[in-house]
Amino acid sequence: VIGDKLAHEGYNNTPNIMLMNGKVSYLDPKAKSNESFTVQRDFALVHILSKSFMIPGKTYRLRISNVGSEWSFNFRIQNHSMLLVETEGSYTNQITLDSLDVHVGQSYSVLVTADQDSADYYIVATAKMANSTQLKTLEVVSVLHYENSTKPADGPLPNGPDPFDVNFSISQARSIRWNLTTGAARPNPQGSFNVSNVTLSQTFVLQNSVNKKNGMINYAINNVSYATPQTPLKLADYYLNGGAGVYELDKFPANSSLPETVYGTFVVSGEHKGWLEIVFKNELKVMDSWHLDGFGFFVVGYGSGNWTPKSRRTYNLYDPVVRSTVQVYPKGWTAVYVYLDNPGMWNLRSQNLKHWYLGQELYIRVYDSDPNPAKEHPPPKNLLYCGSVQAPPSAPPPSPKPVPAPPAPASPSSAATTTATITTIKRQWFNIIEAIFMLLIIWDGSWCL
User: Fold this and answer.
1) Domain Plastocyanin-like, which positions (predicted)?
2) 51 bridge partner residues
């Protein structure tokens, strides 16, 4: 329903306001509340060799996430620098930044030290690729508040890069690399800290596009716009012998675009425990970002213009950062490596919500035909069935158990039998003696007569 509404009516609409933790800008005169972060600036006296040294204030970790649906933003704090330390589960090389680009679906951790005078300072997030009119509402401001501060934030907002300066953004993205010295778990299955020695099994070159057909806007990958089926793909894959008409396997053009847009439910095969190279090409004039369920991207390259096999010469294969969501710049490309060690049916999609809802997605089926050992867990017992896969008939209720017959009366014991026999004999002798006695009385009476 949402996709149909967007395709017919709402495809030109874009989010027109930015929030920080669900609150509007500090500078909005209509705002009833705004976001504020309180920090402490503690100085301690340490006596070393009879000399006093002041230790700077506390250092804070800020987790910055872009949970919006369309706009990338640049983040900065007035009079404070940020030390980048992590992104989406990977420790990064520690670089000091005055501002940081955060794209849709991405997260970063930065360290900020409260080393300025006790006061309040502006925190600013400004949309990328937004013109001056749009920036009137696509800029959100909050406050960094020092404990015991009585001085409100003032002065001009901290300057950020030009929203349309793609070279700045690409340069910053290339500088974000994997930290090879920190102690942490590594997603590289080969146990090394680089991917320079891997052998690629497959390459996908995926180009986005937007088209209008039959009065409806659709987004596509290689001119294929995804159609959501009534039957979930994993159900069809498991129960219907590889799809059985629900989806089309390996008919997707994984390295080139079709001449015209088609609609369909296409699935591509990924080689289990193979290395996949994906090149994302963005032919649009807006930022895009991509996410693949179940895996991390080894981000090996960014570039402007068209990607060619010669572009591989610019790849960083030594310390590419591993992340879950990667950005693609307007009229540019991004290259990633993926190690397909997780069997299943995995969704590859644009994180721009409008692009995703209107067809910019694809499924990768990572499969190993060897059943020993099993590569996936069986479906859970409480699995919900739908579409072409109907729930199996319920087992008949168990038959009622027959009611047991009442137990037979217990047979008399031998002692009881003996007692009854003796009683019977006694009664019989008594009857005989009584009869003889009566005869004697009768006879005696007759004798007297």
Assistant:
1) 9-149, 263-369
2) 48
